[in-house]
Amino acid sequence: KAVDAFAALSQETRLSALRVLVEHGRTGLPAGDLADRLSVRHNTLSFHLSQLERAGLVVSRRSGRQVIYLANIDALQSLAQFLLANCCIRESAESPRCSSTSEGACP
Hints:
By secondary structure, the protein is of the alpha+beta class. It is built from five helices and three strands, in the order H-H-E-H-H-E-E-H. The protein has a three-stranded antiparallel sheet. Strand 2 (58-63) and strand 3 (66-71) form a beta hairpin. Helix 1 (2-9) packs antiparallel against helix 4 (42-54) and helix 2 (12-23) crosses helix 4 (42-54). The chain is elongated, with a radius of gyration of 17 Å. 19% of the residues are buried. The mean pLDDT is 89.
């Protein structure tokens, strides 16, 4: 599942679309508005959104004639947890510990 998610995010338009959808949270954004915001043709964006949806990172719902796309926040949180599951487990006692003051990165 993580491999599918990272493959979907490896394309700039898809990554940009997901970032915009994350900004809109659980309310989402109509596909046309998202295409306009990204300056991408509607049919091109439709292809990219289907890739994100197939990877489980985006969900869609109909609202009248519009399709509203939403970031799958739960899936994104799971992906982040997957990445950080083993953070710093091999770090020695002498090494400085990861902390929020290190800007979220281990030295």
